[in-house]
């Protein structure tokens, strides 16, 4: 017995070391697989749980809103004094860098014919110290929210702007503008163009790009796939349509649930939610954990992937069967970089106009456009305001200060007053 023990002990060390090694190796693999599974399940469970929460809420409001009979909390034809107004709604990051240009634009307007509302970052006040144009003084919303570009907070900001403008019954047209937008015509032209159209200008088309998964079947049955639309965020609405947007809770809550911002694929982000796996990677068991990490990241990607500002209003209007009340095009021009063939990059990166490419010829070329071709639907949209053929674009976006100065000095917005360019404030 003793001998055996000793002999086995003399024999065993290499054997048991191998055993221990293999056992340990298997244990690590088993452990990492199970941790991986647990992490995935937790992710699944937590997203499921919140989905269920929200879906039960949204489907109950769905049924109570009686299948998209438009809920109109305000009566569209509230009487008001004076002329109908165009509401200019600015979505700004902070200040309005092109305020000097808009100042000239509004100077040539009748103050009774328009109103201005600005959504800027919370707490940002428009006054002498932050804008060169008195038209913007105190025009910021007091209930603005922190906006993440490409997040659902963006459409919430739009809804806040529309809501604020609806408070004035004289506002009959509602134009959404970014802080880099410029007008291409004088005020009276823009005013009569918009007022002449009883329809909203919303480019809305079928979103056939399903591989990107902008639409997720989880949105069904509240939003069926056939109602999913895509289009530009920079729209112009008539009053009744602005009310549809502000009154909507059902579609918005679905977007809120399923259109979370896509987290960038980088390790530091992964660390937050996949710390277990990352620490395992450091042990050296790379293959399994890395694939597990990627499964997780892919899931996050899928889950958060839908660009709300390019789908919300369009899909909402399709749900309300308003397609027939729209001019399915936009009045705001942007130039896509032709050399970028990938649709996705195109979607995110319109070209910025600078001083050099905002000269009279370029501006004229934009103003001369009278039709738009929608590739997805093989549809050519001839631009009209209530069946009168008109140029397509009233505004253009992605203008730098230099480009805006060039435009202004061209005198297209009215008499050109050079002093606005030399007023260095702010
Ligand atoms: C505004 O622009 C239009 C078209 O460009 C022009 O016909 C009209 O005379 C301008 N009006 C004023 C008041 O400048
Ligand atoms: C202001 O509105 C009135 C009434 O709609 C219109 O006649 C007038 O031309 C407008 N003024 C400008 C500068 O657009
Ligand atoms: C829009 O159409 C109306 C006719 O419905 C026309 O009188 C008006 O001049 C047009 N506006 C512009 C800016 O072309
Ligand atoms: C649009 O055109 C129709 C028919 O041409 C006309 O009855 C209507 O008043 C016009 N709408 C506006 C807002 O000018
Ligand atoms: C990680 O999870 C937390 C809560 O579990 C969440 O607040 C955070 O947004 C997640 N981070 C990423 C990058 O998804
Ligand atoms: C278009 O994009 C390409 C590649 O991203 C870039 O090299 C080029 O300068 C861009 N052109 C313009 C006009 O922005």
TrEMBL record:
Biased composition (Low complexity): 57-68
Subcellular location: Membrane
Keywords for the protein's UniProt record, in alphabetical order: Glycoprotein, Glycosyltransferase, Membrane, Transferase, Transmembrane, Transmembrane helix
One cellular component (GO) term of this entry: membrane
TM region(s), chain numbering: 20-41
Descriptive protein name: Core-2/I-branching beta-1,6-N-acetylglucosaminyltransferase family protein
Membrane topology: Single-pass type II membrane protein
Molecular function, one GO term: glycosyltransferase activity
Top-level taxon: Eukaryota
Disordered as annotated region, ranges: 50-70
Source species of the chain: Rhododendron simsii
């Amino acid at each position: 017995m003793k001998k055996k023990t000793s002999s086995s002990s003399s024999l065993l060390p290499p054997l048991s070391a191998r055993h221990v090694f293999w056992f340990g190796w298997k244990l690590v693999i088993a452990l990492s697989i199970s941790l991986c599974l647990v992490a995935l399940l937790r992710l699944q469970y937590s997203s499921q749980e919140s989905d269920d929460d929200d879906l039960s809420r949204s489907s109950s409001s769905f049924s109570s809103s009686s299948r998209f009979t438009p809920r109109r909390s305000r009566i569209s034809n509230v009487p008001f004094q004076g002329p109908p107004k165009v509401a200019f709604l600015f979505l700004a990051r902070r200040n309005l860098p092109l305020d000097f240009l808009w100042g000239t634009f509004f100077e040539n307007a009748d103050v009774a014919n328009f109103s201005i509302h600005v959504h800027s970052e919370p707490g940002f006040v428009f006054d002498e110290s932050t804008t060169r144009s008195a038209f913007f003084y105190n025009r910021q919303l007091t209930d603005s929210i922190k906006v993440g570009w490409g997040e659902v907070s963006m459409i919430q900001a739009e809804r806040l702007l529309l809501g604020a403008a609806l408070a004035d019954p004289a506002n009959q047209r509602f134009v959404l503008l970014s802080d880099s937008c410029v007008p291409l015509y004088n005020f009276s032209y823009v005013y009569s163009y918009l007022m002449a159209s009883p329809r909203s200008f919303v480019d809305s088309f079928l979103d056939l790009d399903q591989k990107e998964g902008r639409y997720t079947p989880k949105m069904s049955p509240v939003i069926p796939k056939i109602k999913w639309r895509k289009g530009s965020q920079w729209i112009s609405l008539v009053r009744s349509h602005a009310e549809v947007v502000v009154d909507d809770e059902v579609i918005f809550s679905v977007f809120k649930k399923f259109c979370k911002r896509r987290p960038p694929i980088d390790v530091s982000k992964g660390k937050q939610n996949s710390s277990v796996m990352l620490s395992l990677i450091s042990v050296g068991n790379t293959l399994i954990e890395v694939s597990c990490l990627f499964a997780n990241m892919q899931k996050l990607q899928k889950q958060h992937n839908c660009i709300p500002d390019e789908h919300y209003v369009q899909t909402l209007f399709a749900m309300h069967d308003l397609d027939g009340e729209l001019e399915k095009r936009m009045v705001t021009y942007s130039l896509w970089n032709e050399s970028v063939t990938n649709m996705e990059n195109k979607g995110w990166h319109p070209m910025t106009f600078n001083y050099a490419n905002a000269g009279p010829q370029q501006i004229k070329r934009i103003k001369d456009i009278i039709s738009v071709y929608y590739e997805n639907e093989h549809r050519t949209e001839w631009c009209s305001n209530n069946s009168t053929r008109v140029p397509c674009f009233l505004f253009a976006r992605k203008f730098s200060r230099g480009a805006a100065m060039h435009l202004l000095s061209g005198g297209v917005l009215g008499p050109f007053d050079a002093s606005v360019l030399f007023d260095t404030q702010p």
